Amino acid sequence: MKKLAILSIVFLSLISCKEKKSDSETVTTEEVSEEIVPQKTYAEISIAQDGEWVDGSRGHKEYNASTSFKNVDSLHVPKEHTDHSWFIRYEGPGWENSQVGYRLYLDWRNAIDIFGKKADSIVLPYVGQDGFDSYHEPSPWGQDILKAGNSMGIGGYGRVVADSVVHFQTVKNTLATIENSEGSSSVNISYEGWKSGDDSIDLKAKLTIFPNDRFTKAELSPSKEITGICTGIVDHGVTIHKKEGEKWAYVATYGQQTLASPPDNLGMALFYKLDEVAEQKKGDYEHLVIFKPTTGTITYYFLAAWEQELNGIKTEDAFLTDLNLKLQSLNNTNSIN
After folding, report:
1. Which ranges of 209-315 does DSSP label H, i.e. alpha helix?
2. Residue pLDDT, tens place only, 12-27
3. Which pTM does this prediction carry?
4. CB of 205 within 8 A of CB of 219?
5. Cβ(156)–Cβ(112) below 8 Å
6. DSSP helix/strand/coil, 24
């Protein structure tokens, strides 16, 4: 496919700043001059093919004997799919720019994870191709750096019911679609019949990344006003920072909280609009932001800054300086993109 061919060229250039290419990797201007448009953002969802659903060792169905993965623009999630069912490459959709990558577990967990990047090129098409969970190991492009556990990860969403976060254990139908354009990349997810507590609603989520900076813009649109819709940042026991502005606020953590070996510094932050939020508090597994009931669109931003990122943020002071500039922009313009 032309798209993957282009991405392959980009990926080869990923290490080329530091290593010489062989002659076989050389590409002439004539070969690509009409096709190459540098990709600044990218989103994808990739599924296994040519296999079959069988009873698995974990007590649920697994997708067995697949031959390869293929990217799709949209996916109605099969009823059989759950965590560790080996059907979706790296377990859900992913999105990235030159600085950071994210993925969402497209199953009952519905948490968002972080791909820390040590390369400034598009890498997601190669993640998990050389072994389903190989992204847990260090590689030239980077690695999965966040342990979400029972939390929503960073910027994931759920609902607080009786002081506990309900994830997406019961959903009638889930549809995920991908958008890639010159100025941004988005993952759109439509949940039909999400049941939590005594309520059942439809929920639309849009997660968008832009060419510059580390943040994702999250937009949630519920079909019904219910209490407790929330987001959060996993609590790994490191320093927490909070700050309120005139219209927006943030909650953030910084410290040694990665899956790198040894663990190194990672900053995570959530920006939220004060008039959309009922409460910010500590939950069982995360620092929670709980939204007011609405049928309007809830907008928030989340970001991750890893110290191994190329030309990245290396200290807690630099991280807070960056957050405060973003908070100022939000208070002034309601946007940081």
Report:
1. none
2. 344 334 343 334 333 3
3. 0.89
4. yes
5. yes
6. helix
